[in-house]
């Protein structure tokens, strides 16, 4: 493995303290609270009581919580739809509560999710953020409360996929969905975060390897904090990622999980109604988003046997259309690096965090986490292929 | 042993699919999803349980082979730990899944320490990296085959069935 030579603005690639402060807070909180489990899925009555207390603390009067309905989807947050009625909204409003169980496949921050989703609502369709409780001070556990958005993530007819939107088929809607998908990626990366006064985010230095090392330190800390069974190629990948960390000339907003299953659209028009799941958003290298969506597990095979990125476009078409829409040039070396990083992240989530949450019984759907964990070796195989290629 | 494990697993799947799931309201999607996944897990376990001991033995043998490859070039202090973990693994009770799992974990920690090169991050020789990548590909293929029935693997059609995979390891 060739080691990338250090530049003047670079950080020490082995300095594990090089991490975005809010991420460090979340990871340390996870470890601190781990032993307070096991987590028990919330009942409708418990959710009603939590929400009533929350809205009272927010100063609402004449509160009624009705039609509480547990939602499926995702492998991370416990989600409920409900209707809120209070003195100023007697007609009621349908909302979604998205809250953290004690541990999930990805430990993230509802403050970051609420903040960025709220701002990005000015630039693309997203579920409107009504409230968030970053550290669970009022609700008892961190949560974000969103406006209810109608739509589907898979076509109702013939598009059913597997767990978390993976492996589905978007069928005849592909031509309508693909341009909107490209536009969502380009809009995210064009967003001027430097003027946004973000409270829950910090930005890595430009023209430095800091963006890459922050990510490596985030996910390697998750791995070592969660370790159930050592996996040699995961340790090797960490070493490779440190020794090959590339420069990021211009940090941009990265969605972190923009792929099939995380955009919602209405039928039959195919018009986007919401770009979902901003929980992994951060300021970093846009190649991370491009490499993420190109992973095989998040794509599908077309009828002609061609692999479709996010179930929408052949790889070359995807790259060409993204570059045209965003004005960003994709650097193959950085793309390759972030392909390794993303395969590593997925392995860490599936074989590290998901397994630890399951063993501790700290989630509301361990049976899903162990199912996803059983796919972790797909990413190990991918890491080997990528490191050999590089 | 009656009723045997195969029969009980088959009965549980039937109960879930033909009684529990139809009784769940259509709008209880999380409960329905989880019930279907439980049936899926049970179906996989039904295929796996008789081979679980053999699978763990093969995994430990392969990890021991990797450890022996890494040993000559490992920094002295880490080599001592690796040698000790290797001896423990060789001495473990090979008819106990629990004992083999423990040995795999202990040896894995010693291998990880060598990969990361200790406090000074000692360089990994190219031969060690080759050995690691070869091992990793075998390990990943073994695990992907073991869990092939989850149908999440985009290349599942290239994977052998469990019997063939274990026979290949012999």
From TrEMBL, chain A:
Pfam families: APH. Residues 68-316 form the Aminoglycoside phosphotransferase domain. InterPro entries: ACAD10_11_N (IPR041726), AGP_Transferase (IPR051678), Aminoglycoside_PTrfase (IPR002575), Kinase-like_dom_sf (IPR011009). It comes from the Bacteria. This is Aminoglycoside phosphotransferase.
UniProtKB/TrEMBL annotation, chain B:
It comes from the Bacteria. This is Uncharacterized protein. It comes from Sphingomonas bisphenolicum.
């Amino acid at each position: 493995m060739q080691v990338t030579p250090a530049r003047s603005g670079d950080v020490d690639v082995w300095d594990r303290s090089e991490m975005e402060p809010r991420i460090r807070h979340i990871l340390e909180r996870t470890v601190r609270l781990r032993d307070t489990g096991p987590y028990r899925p919330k009942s409708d009555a418990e959710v009603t009581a939590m929400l009533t207390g929350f809205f009272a603390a927010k100063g609402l009067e004449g509160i009624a919580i009705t039609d509480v309905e547990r939602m499926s989807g995702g492998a991370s947050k416990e989600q409920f739809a409900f209707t809120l009625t209070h003195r100023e909204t007697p007609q009621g409003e349908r909302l979604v509560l998205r809250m953290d169980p004690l541990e999930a496949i990805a430990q993230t921050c509802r403050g970051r999710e609420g903040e960025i989703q709220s701002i990005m609502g000015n630039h693309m369709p997203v579920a409107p953020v009504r409230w968030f409780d970053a550290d669970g001070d009022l609700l008892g556990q961190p949560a974000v409360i969103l406006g209810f958005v109608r739509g589907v993530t898979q076509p109702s007819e013939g598009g059913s996929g597997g767990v978390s939107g993976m492996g589905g088929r978007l069928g005849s809607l592909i031509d309508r969905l693909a341009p909107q998908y490209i536009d969502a990626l380009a809009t995210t990366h064009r967003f001027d975060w430097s003027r946004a006064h973000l409270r829950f985010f910090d930005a890595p230095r430009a023209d430095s390897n800091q963006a890459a090392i922050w990510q490596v330190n985030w996910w390697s800390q998750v791995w070592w904090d969660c370790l159930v069974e050592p996996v040699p190629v995961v340790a090797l990948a960490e070493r490779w990622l440190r020794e090959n960390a590339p420069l990021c000339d211009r940090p941009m907003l990265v969605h972190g999980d923009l792929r099939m299953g995380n955009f919602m659209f209405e039928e039959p028009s195919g018009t986007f109604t919401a770009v979902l799941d901003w929980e992994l958003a951060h300021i970093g290298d846009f190649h991370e988003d491009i490499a993420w969506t190109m992973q095989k597990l998040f794509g599908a095979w077309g009828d002609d046997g061609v692999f479709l990125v996010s179930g929408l476009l052949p790889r070359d078409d995807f790259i060409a259309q993204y570059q045209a829409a965003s004005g960003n040039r994709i650097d193959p070396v950085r793309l390759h690096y972030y392909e390794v990083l993303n395969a590593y992240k997925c392995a860490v989530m599936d074989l590290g965090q998901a397994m630890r949450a399951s063993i501790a019984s700290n989630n509301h759907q361990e049976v899903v986490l162990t199912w996803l964990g059983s796919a972790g070796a797909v990413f190990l195989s991918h890491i080997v292929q990528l490191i050999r290629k590089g | 042993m009656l009723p045997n494990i195969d029969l009980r697993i088959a009965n549980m799947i039937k109960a879930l699919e033909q009684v529990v799931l139809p009784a769940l309201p259509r709008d209880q999607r999380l409960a329905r999803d989880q019930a279907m996944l439980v049936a899926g897990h049970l179906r996989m376990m039904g295929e796996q349980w008789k081979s679980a001991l053999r699978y763990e033995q093969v995994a430990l043998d392969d990890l021991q082979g990797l450890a022996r490859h890494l040993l000559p070039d490992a920094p002295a202090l880490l080599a001592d730990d690796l040698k000790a973990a290797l001896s423990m693994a060789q001495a473990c009770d090979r008819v106990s899944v629990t004992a083999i799992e423990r040995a795999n974990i202990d040896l894995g920690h010693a291998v990880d320490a060598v990969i990361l090169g200790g406090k000074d991050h000692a360089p990994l020789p190219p031969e060690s990296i080759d050995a690691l990548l070869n091992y990793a590909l075998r390990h990943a293929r073994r695990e992907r085959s073991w869990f092939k029935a989850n149908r999440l693997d985009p290349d599942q059609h290239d994977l052998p069935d469990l019997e063939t995979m274990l026979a290949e390891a012999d």
